[in-house]
Design brief:
This protein is an alpha/beta fold. The chain has three domains: about 5-45, no CATH class; about 65-435, TIM Barrel, CATH 3.20.20; about 455-590, Rossmann fold (3-Layer(aba) Sandwich), CATH 3.40.50. The protein contains 22 helices and 18 strands. Strands 13-18-17-16-14-15 form a six-stranded mixed beta sheet, with helices on both faces. A five-stranded parallel beta sheet has the order 8-5-4-3-12. It has a three-stranded parallel beta sheet with strand order 9-10-11.
């Protein structure tokens, strides 16, 4: 493979060298940029949907930095500022006319957004307002369409295409993509090899769909059981265990041929694990001293830096003992530059959490926020409320002297270097026809099942109810989770124990509780699912009523394991996840076909406490 310099674009594409008759024009040649840009455009247009020739070379950080510097010299100020922004787009196709794009950006299509603003990246969602995801092949086609728009406009630099594929409760791309149970479940499994394998599979599948940056792993230490936004997204309440798993997953995402890997993103720096508020809606405060931070929150981020993580995401939280200004960490120079850059020695990409979140908007205007973030030491500005306003604010700040162009250059260089190291510039497109051969393969699904089998944790089995000595002739599945309950009932039925379900939700009424207790008297066994029961007295009342019915009752905490300390249930399991793959593993454990091996990854406080590391087997 040959390095090719294209004025505004760098490639490792042997075919381009061949098309030019073996002669690669030097950067100083007046025809080099236009000629190679034309070759690039032609190559992308000849076979729509095909991938640019894939490089198996791994540029060194030194090579990437030098190449990024050469590229930077040919970019205008507007081009540079565009590279700092990552935006959402609307629609499942690059060329789909979507009213959301007109409302948010004044254009019709997602490709138009890229052509108008020349952002450095886009981020995918699967919600009602930003629906980018249907099937793996559709995602690949969307990615290719947006990359072509980027390559033919602005600075001609390919996009970072990102999403939040943490697995577990934060999963943007569902089945048929391979699903894993999430971080706290992996922490319960205690296998860093499993964690690295899960990340490697997830990364390969994402890259096959054109996604090259994953906003994962979550590096928060869930030291506060009342945390409303992290919880099972964290591996553990133990800093050392969390650090081991963060490093393992960074290696999983980023190890291998660059064009088949993704940039990992450790989040949310300096640590969101001790909050009692959700930064989506409030500005949480963490009252830790710098020494307390070093002991509890820093180890996973330090491990991520040592593992070579490509990017680190900031948190919209106040740390008053570290920065008394009251600014959230995202806008705090003492946090971003002082702790992350200087103390941890990190020189990779720092990306903000979404700038549309209330945690970062409480104290400053949408025009001020991106400028303040850059002053703090941030590089990528994720999802500003008004993209045009945000870009204009940064450009004006440079032209007005509030920011230097050298400061902008430093961030652009980090973004370009990340794109080079991850093969985004050499291989911006993916092979849409090959997606189904990579995503959700039988081998990947089997690996996910094996990994998940090792995460189910038995916390209590005083009644000896589990495992079922014989398959129950009838089972009631009740409690939380319409979808999860239905999947569990179907799995039990398929395994030979006919199951009915009676979902009672997050806060069951007295009538629902009475109905569930009555139904329990008509079956051989009951499986009741709980989700954050420790914060929901009505769920506790339901479990107690089922136990009082005298039937065989198995309670399963499918989110935070803190539930297990709060009811009279004598058989308690926790999966720390309701990901689709968990249901099969849970049933196999209940029927004795899989030996439970999980250990609590957190201390469980409460009326019946359980220590970190507790776990039973049979």
């Amino acid at each position: 493979m040959t390095w090719v310099t294209c004025g505004k674009f760098f490639l490792i594409v042997k075919s381009f060298h061949t098309r030019l008759g073996g002669a690669v024009p030097r950067l100083s040649s007046p025809i080099a940029g236009p000629l190679l840009a034309a070759v690039l455009t032609t190559a992308l247009a000849v076979t729509p949907g095909s991938a640019v020739a894939e490089s198996d070379a791994t540029p060194t950080p030194l090579d990437a930095s030098a190449a990024a510097s050469r590229l930077l010299r040919h970019m205008s100020l507007e081009d540079k500022v565009g590279q700092l922004f990552v935006t959402w787009v609307h629609g499942q196709s690059a060329d789909e006319v979507h009213p959301g794009n007109q409302r948010d950006f004044g254009v019709d299509t997602a490709a138009d957004v890229v052509r108008k603003f020349h952002p450095g990246g886009v981020v995918y969602f699967n919600n009602a307002t930003r629906d980018n995801i249907d099937t793996p092949r559709q995602v690949a086609a969307l990615s290719n369409g947006l990359q072509r728009a980027a390559l033919r406009s602005g600075s001609h630099v390919p996009l970072t295409v990102s999403t939040d594929q943490e697995m577990g409760i934060v999963t943007r791309i569902g089945p048929p993509a391979t699903q894993f149970p999430g971080n706290m479940a992996l922490g319960a499994g205690r296998s860093t090899a499993d964690a690295q394998r899960a990340a490697a599979i997830t990364g390969r599948e994402l890259r096959a769909m054109g996604v090259n940056q994953d906003f994962a792993p979550d590096a928060d230490v869930n030291s506060n059981p009342g945390n409303p936004v992290i919880g099972v997204r964290s591996y553990s309440s133990d800093p050392a265990l969390t650090a081991e798993f963060v490093a393992a997953q960074v290696r999983g995402y980023e190890t291998g041929v660059p064009a088949r890997t993704v940039s990992a993103t450790a989040k949310h720096f300096p640590g969101h694990g001790d909050t009692e508020q959700d930064s989506h809606t409030e500005l949480p405060q963490v009252d830790r001293s710098v020494e307390q931070w070093r002991q509890t929150d820093a180890p996973p981020f330090r491990a991520a830096v040592a593992a070579g993580v490509d990017s680190i995401m900031t948190a919209h939280i106040q740390m008053p003992q570290i920065d008394p200004s009251g600014d959230p960490a995202t806008l705090s120079r003492p946090v971003v530059t002082g702790l992350l850059r200087e103390e941890l020695g990190y020189d990779g990409v720092v990306v903000t959490d979404a700038l549309e979140m209330e945690g970062v908007r409480k104290l400053h205007s949408d025009a001020e926020i991106p400028v303040l973030a850059l002053k703090a030491g941030v590089d990528q500005l994720l999802m500003p409320v008004d993209l045009e306003l945000a870009i204009t604010s940064v450009v004006n700040a440079v032209r007005g002297g509030e920011l230097t162009e050298e400061r902008v250059d430093a961030s652009v260089l980090r973004v370009l270097r990340m794109k080079l190291l991850r093969g985004v510039l050499s291989t911006p497109l993916v092979d849409e026809a090959a997606v189904d051969r990579v995503v959700g393969t039988p081998a990947n699904l089997a690996a996910a099942k094996e990994i998940t089998d090792r995460t189910v944790t038995v916390v209590r089995n005083d009644s000896g109810t589990a495992p079922f000595a014989t398959r129950p002739g009838s089972v009631l599945v009740t409690g939380w989770g319409e979808t999860t309950g239905a999947a569990l009932a179907a799995e039990l039925t398929s395994a030979g124990s006919p199951a009915t379900r009676l979902t009672t939700g997050t806060a069951p009424t007295d009538e629902q509780i009475a109905a569930a207790a009555a139904a329990a008297g008509q079956v051989d066994a009951v499986v009741v699912l709980t989700s954050n029961l420790y914060r929901q007295p009505a769920q506790q009342k339901l479990v107690d009523a089922l136990v009082a019915s005298g039937e065989r009752v198995v309670a399963v905490a499918v989110q935070n394991p803190y539930d297990v300390a709060h009811t009279s249930a004598r058989t308690w399991l926790t999966t720390c996840s309701y990901s689709p793959v968990v249901v099969g593993s849970l049933v196999d454990v209940l029927f004795g076909e899989v030996t439970p091996a999980g250990k609590l990854p957190v201390d469980v406080p409460g009326p019946t406490p359980y220590p970190f590391g507790h776990g039973l087997s049979w």
